[in-house]
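Hello again, I could really use a second opinion on something today. I've been puzzling over a protein and I'd love to understand its fold better. I'm sending you its amino acid sequence along with the backbone structure tokens. It would help a lot if you went through both lines with me. I've dropped the whole record in just underneath, so have a look.
***
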Amino acid sequence: MTHTISINGERYIHPDGTTHLVSIGSPGTAEPSWVAQARARGVQVVRLEFDNVESSIHGQAPTQADFTQVTDLARHALSERRAHVHLHCSEGISRSTAAALGVLAVFHPGEEEEQIAARLLTLRPQAQPNRRMLRHLYREFDLNMLGEFPRPR
């Protein structure tokens, strides 16, 4: 069984072989045209819309339901013999990398925070996961990742 993931910004077309796609955009923005093309080719797509914020005071924050859609998709991918989950947001730095931590937690159950953080940083060295999503990760998996990714200065 092979299960892989990739992460990038929305300007980049998803890699060949993608079976599952998490597309994250800001509220009211159109999804990239390549997302619709992927869906038409049979790629399972979850489209989420929320701002890259920690609190609803500053915009539409990600909810636990948003995070659960990502982990449900990851569980579906894990049930398949081969799967490639691709995640994107506008820059591939914050929202998609936080979502990727959920996918990694599903793909590697029982791993400690440090191991999952290292996997993410191998995939996306510039990762600065959205802190609100990290709180959802804690609620779902009891993984406290806030210390693994200090606030950028």
